[in-house]
């Protein structure tokens, strides 16, 4: 029996197929759901349903082995090589600088608790600015209070 393709190998095939088909992540997401969630899922961070996996593989002309992999539960996170990517590193840097302040402000506004990264939405947008376009990233997580 052949082992199931790894999520990282499936992601590599999705990336190649997306480029070869001339599709944007947003165009693919239009068939499945939210842009950021769909992109993360196709890069291996979320499992797709059977129907979603079939739909995206048909769109990208990929076979059932990729669809099978896209349905697996992921090992979430990022490998160390990706952490050194300048775009990803800037998110780490921003949280290193502003994380303690955000934590304090969340506690002040909501009380003792955390923002969920499971019951969570994320979005990205471009905002025109005279000094150069701005990247707007919105994290929208449910507040989970600690209950003692």
TrEMBL record:
It comes from the Bacteria. Keywords: Lyase. The active site is at residues 90, 93, 116. The keyword Secreted does not apply. InterPro entries: Cyanase (IPR008076), Cyanate_lyase_C (IPR003712), Cyanate_lyase_C_sf (IPR036581), CYNS_N (IPR048564), Lambda_DNA-bd_dom_sf (IPR010982). One of its GO terms (molecular function) is cyanate hydratase activity. Residues 77-148 form the Cyanate lyase C-terminal domain. The keyword Methyltransferase does not apply. It catalyses: cyanate + hydrogencarbonate + 3 H(+) = NH4(+) + 2 CO2. Its EC number is 4.2.1.104. Pfam families: Cyanate_lyase (PF02560), CYNS_N (PF21291). It is an enzyme of class 4 (lyase). Catalyzes the reaction of cyanate with bicarbonate to produce ammonia and carbon dioxide. Belongs to the cyanase family. This is Cyanate hydratase. It comes from Haloechinothrix salitolerans. The gene is cynS.
């Amino acid at each position: 029996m052949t082992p199931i393709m790894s999520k990282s190998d499936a992601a590599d095939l999705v990336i190649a197929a997306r480029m070869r088909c001339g599709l944007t992540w947003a165009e693919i997401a239009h068939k499945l759901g939210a842009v950021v969630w769909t992109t993360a899922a196709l890069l291996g961070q979320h499992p797709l349903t059977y129907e979603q996996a079939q739909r995206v593989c048909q769109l990208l002309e990929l076979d059932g082995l990729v669809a099978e992999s896209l349905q697996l539960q992921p090992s979430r996170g990022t490998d160390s090589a990706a952490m050194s990517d300048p775009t990803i590193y800037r998110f780490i840097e921003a949280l290193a600088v502003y994380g303690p302040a955000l934590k304090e402000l969340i506690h002040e506004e909501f009380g003792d608790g955390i923002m969920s990264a499971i019951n969570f939405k994320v979005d990205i947008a471009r905002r025109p600015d005279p000094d150069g376009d701005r990247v707007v990233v919105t994290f929208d997580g449910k507040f989970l209070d600690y209950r003692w």
